[in-house]
Amino acid sequence: MVKRSYNIDVVLQALSDPTRRQVIERLGMGPASVSDLAAPFSMAMPSFMQHLDILETAQLIYTEKVGRVRICYLNQNPFSVMESWLQVQKSLWETRLNQLDSFLLKTKGKKYE
After folding, report:
1. Helix axes 45-57, 18-27, angle to 10 degrees
2. Backbone angles phi, psi at 39, to 5 degrees
3. Residue 61, H or E segment
């Protein structure tokens, strides 16, 4: 099995656009054709394809051609990497906030000159 690495900066940049986030949300319900994904958006197909290219470059989706139809699939692996990174950040901030809380409780009522 090939172990892939995911660039969190590229993933976050890809998810910074609301159109791309909506595509990801839709693919969370299951695979879809490009035309089905593009239907809710009022943009030309070449513009929509640029969004898909960005998502595919970030490895958030992959596509497969079935006959004349291109089907898009969600790749959940980059989300696991992001989830791990966010969990570390959350843990760090919880520790810092707990330390601040302890400090404030210890110094409550003390006067500083």
Report:
1. 70
2. -50, -45
3. strand 61-66
